[in-house]
UniProtKB/TrEMBL annotation:
Protein name per its UniProtKB record: D-alanine--D-alanine ligase
Pathway in which the depicted protein is active: Cell wall biogenesis; peptidoglycan biosynthesis
ATP-grasp domain segment(s): 115-315
HAMAP family per UniProt: Dala_Dala_lig
GO cellular component: cytoplasm
Organism for this UniProt entry: Aurantimonas manganoxydans (strain ATCC BAA-1229 / DSM 21871 / SI85-9A1)
GO biological process, one term: cell wall organization
Catalytic site: E29, S155, S293
Binding annotation for Mg(2+) 2: E282, N284
């Protein structure tokens, strides 16, 4: 394998390093983060690191200043952990951390701005518009079918699919209890297969197909409920399609300024021929990190164990880049 993907055969990179695993937090993705954090902490201990788990609260800066770890492993998901906020705290404290930095994290978390940057880098994206949720509930912003997404949420929270035969937009957008912010992105619906591709450093790994059972798309239950989905790595694709997806994943990773690990998600509509249409949906700078999550599954297909994957991430950690 080419690029910055070293092997850690004997665990020597871990000797004496103290890693603080940041998890939990207070976004809607807290349960996902706790699962990622616990799995990462166990694997890093297996790899020989000294590990402290930190359930992130509003006093996290004080906690980290007291602990002074060599590296912070960021296992947070969603706002605060994924949008540049915790990254800024770690930069201020001068603690090297895993995954992307402040700017890349903030850009990637905002779906519409990430699409603008990716499109400028030559990555194919679907037509999309931003609207206040009340305006999006009043009349169709795009011809159905289309998808409504909170502009800065993860784990498919708040995603709504509007089918061709729906006479009006989803009325839950009017609700006083809508928890996902007032600005939503309305995006052209792309039929087809769910694909994803992980990038590590400057290497695009194998393309993975996500097969869901009984779900219209890769929603929260598909991601986190046992049996909700299966992963096919490498995906059964024409070679030129797989190469394009790998190239576009690298292009998005670089254009947004990501570092460490990221994961780009795609839809591939091959109903009318093997070339089909491939559309980039988003880049995830904090992908799930349990042993059965997508990125660990993809890395495993390339012969890299879960502890080895996490060791690479710890050794890649930095500030100010």
């Amino acid at each position: 394998m080419n690029g910055r993907y070293p092997r850690f055969e004997d665990g020597s990179g871990s000797m004496g390093k103290h890693v603080a695993v940041l998890m939990g937090g207070f976004s809607s993705e807290r349960p996902v983060s706790l699962a990622s954090g616990k799995a990462c902490a166990a694997a890093l201990e297996t790899a020989g690191y000294t590990v402290t788990t930190v359930d992130v609260d509003r006093n996290v800066a004080e906690t980290l200043a007291r602990l002074r770890p060599d590296v912070a492993f960021n296992a947070l998901h969603g706002p605060f952990g994924e949008d540049g906020t915790i990254q800024g705290i770690l930069e201020y404290l001068e603690i090297p951390y895993t995954h992307s930095g402040v700017l890349a994290s903030a850009l990637a978390m905002h779906k519409e701005r990430a699409k603008i940057v990716a499109k400028a880098a030559g990555v194919p994206v679907a037509e999309a518009k931003l609207r206040h949720r009340l305006d999006a509930a009043e009349s169709h912003v795009l011809p159905p079918p289309y998808v409504i997404k909170p502009v800065a949420e993860g784990s498919s929270f708040g995603v709504l699919i509007v089918r061709e035969d729906q006479p009006h937009p989803p009325q839950q957008l009017y609700g006083d209890d809508w928890p996902y912010g007032d600005i939503v992105m309305i995006e052209r619906f792309v039929a087809g297969r769910e694909l994803t591709c992980a990038v590590m450093g400057d290497v695009a790994l194998e393309v993975c197909e996500i097969v869901t059972e009984g779900h219209a798309f890769y929603d929260y239950d598909s991601k986190y409920v046992p049996g909700g989905s299966s992963h096919i790595v490498p995906a059964d694709l024409p070679k030129d399609v797989a190469r394009k997806i790998q190239g576009w994943s690298l292009a998005a990773h670089a254009a947004l300024g990501c570092r460490g690990v990221s994961r780009s998600d795609f839809r591939y509509d091959d109903r009318f021929g093997p070339g089909g249409e491939v559309v980039w949906l988003e880049v995830n700078t904090q992908p799930g990190m349990t042993e059965t999550s997508l990125v660990p599954d993809i890395a495993a297909a390339s012969g890299h164990s879960f502890p080895e994957l996490l060791s690479w991430m710890v050794e890649d950690a930095s500030c100010r880049r």
